Amino acid sequence: MNKESIPTLSPLFRFQWEEAQQCHVVLYPEGMVKLSQSAGEIMKQVDGEKSVTTIIQTLSDLFDGADVSDDVIAFITEAEKNGWIEPK
Question: Quick one: 7-83 is in which CATH superfamily?
């Protein structure tokens, strides 16, 4: 995936807030993955409409102009490798 790609959640996975865990999680048939707060913020942006560039800009704005580019790209790369997301 590159910065112009539009990531979308794979149909095999579900992203949601898990009250019992007090964090966002990725659910799949064999279990679940608990996400850190920053990973949850990135996944909230993965809607099949926003490009990676737009996600980076949205999160940078949310965190007072912080440079989040490397972190977002690293997470998106890992999430794609794990099969959680895929390019639209």
Answer: Coenzyme PQQ synthesis protein D (PqqD) (1.10.10.1150)
